[in-house]
Write a structure and sequence with these properties.
This is DNA replication/recombination mediator RecO N-terminal domain-containing protein. The chain starts with 7 loop residues before the first strand and ends in an 11-residue tail after the last helix. It is of the alpha+beta class and about 220 residues long. The mean pLDDT is about 90. The chain has two domains: about 10-80, Nucleic acid-binding proteins (OB fold (Dihydrolipoamide Acetyltransferase, E2P), Beta Barrel), CATH 2.40.50; about 85-205, no CATH class. Helix 3 (about 115-125) runs antiparallel to helix 4 (about 135-145). The chain has seven helices and five strands; from the N terminus they run E-E-E-H-E-E-H-H-H-H-H-H. A five-stranded mixed barrel has the order 1-2-3-5-4.
Length: about 220
Amino acid sequence: MKQLQQSKIQNKVGVVLSVKKVGNKGRLLHVFTKDSGNIVVFTSESTIKKYGSGYLTPYALLRITVTIKDELFIMTQYEGQLLFNMLQCSYKEVNNWYFVSALMKILFAPLDSDLLAWQIILQGAFSARIHNKSVCALITSLQLLTVSGFNPLEQEPLSNYSISKEAYVLLQSLQKHQWGEHFYGVIGKSAYKEVVIYINDFIESYCDLHMKVTFEV
């Protein structure tokens, strides 16, 4: 006779990457958590009625209680805050941050915590509240690629592309940018465009992710 698995209750904090409606007004959330990395969480209609739906949106920071049973995460209570408001973003800005979400899901394995990735997604999204959202999305993507082992500044990928010295210097500055500090580099339009094209090509070639973005300023 198969032994019944007991439910576990855990508290977690995470950034919402995407939300999908399921069943009878329930939600399925993809969340990158501090201690467990990528997880998928279900929340029922009754829980949503109790706690509201205002923070069940991409790039909300949630503090949640989940019941875990048979590898299923069920959210029973939550509170949160918006890192930035996606409803106030332009169409291009929304696409750029959805691209960041797609990167997070591909680059980092489920249930595998990564504190560097956690700090980058948290600080990058928070910075997008007050700084240029597309530039923040580009920096976030570049730094996530780097910490996951896909470094666009390594010699091998660079040798396959011809980018200008100005674009290379900008790429270095963006990769090394410390969140919370003023960006002192000069973002020239031509060099920035080169960097965007290079990052798109790099991701398609090395990460097998076919989702072109502009990161326009």
